[in-house]
Amino acid sequence: MKYHMIAFSLGFLLDLLFGDPYWLPHPIRLIGSLIAKAEKYFLGKNKDRNEKKELRQGIYMVIIVLFSTMTVTTLILCLTYYINCYLGIAVETIMTYQILATKCLKVESMKVYHCLKDKTLPEARKAVSMIVGRDTVCLDERGVVKAAIETVAENTSDGVIAPMLYTALGGPVLGFIYKAVNTMDSMIGYKNDKYLYFGRAAAKLDDVVNFLPARISAYLMITASFIG
Q1: Which of 30, 49, 100, 145 has the most CB atoms around its CB within 10 Å?
Q2: What pTM value is reported for the model?
Q3: Sign of torsion, CA 89 92 94 96?
Q4: 4-10: long-range pairs with CB below 8 Å, 24+
Q5: Rounded distance, CA 151 to CA 101, Å?
Q6: Could you read off the pLDDT of 204-218 as tens digits, one per residue?
Q7: pLDDT of residue 67
Q8: Distances from the Cα of 57 to the Cαs of 46, 52, 100, 228, in angstroms?
Q9: Which long-range contacts (CB under 8 A, 24 or more apart) does 35-42 make?
Q10: pLDDT at 228 (0 to 100)
Q11: Within 45-161, where are the H helices?
């Protein structure tokens, strides 16, 4: 527990100082690649649409992704702590650092603010398009501001509060499991023709794991509004 708290504190500090450098390989990209391959494997086999089959395949994919994430993370931590406790702390620190996204969220959202303040609306639209999934081409200034605020609110829960909570409770293993769930939801958790059934398990699981963190985030934002 002592080593875990040291690594957690150091990882959080690294995230505040450095954020996510674009040149640094990130484990979430590997998880995303696994999800994409699993999706291609399962959906590529479906010549005829079958709701029950797609629901079942979606559950299989969730199990595969979560089991793979848990196994790899656990093996790395166990091996490094077995070799040397200081090496274990260092690796756990880096893992914690990669799970959190506090500074990255601040940096990307402040780009929108600076574009609105000092530059042109098209540049602000481009900046906000980097942090939202919607079409930003036709947004006016109010729309850009609204999009930025909404994504900061959502990602405060998804990228900061929830990862911190799960990593504090279960170390990087639980932290990366949460990120895997969140990544699956962002990739296949849509109510469209392609993912309505296949992505349902991932979407529902994301709702479950975010139930408590989302409410904690909301109360923290309410409290922060009085401080401001």
Answers
A1: 100
A2: 0.90
A3: negative
A4: 4/92, 4/171, 6/89, 6/93, 7/89, 7/92, 7/93, 7/95, 7/96, 7/171, 8/92, 8/96, 8/167, 8/168, 8/171, 10/89, 10/93, 10/96, 10/97
A5: 13
A6: 999 999 999 999 999
A7: 98
A8: 10, 9, 30, 47
A9: 35/61, 35/65, 35/183, 35/184, 35/187, 35/188, 36/187, 38/64, 38/65, 39/187, 39/188, 39/198, 42/198
A10: 67
A11: 51-83, 85-99, 102-118, 121-129, 141-156
Q: What is the pLDDT of residue 20?
A: 81
For 72, the token pair is 């790899």
Which has the closest alpha carbon to 38: 183, 226, 192?
183
- Neighbour tally for 132: CB within 10 Å: 17
> Rg for the chain (alpha carbons), in Å?
19
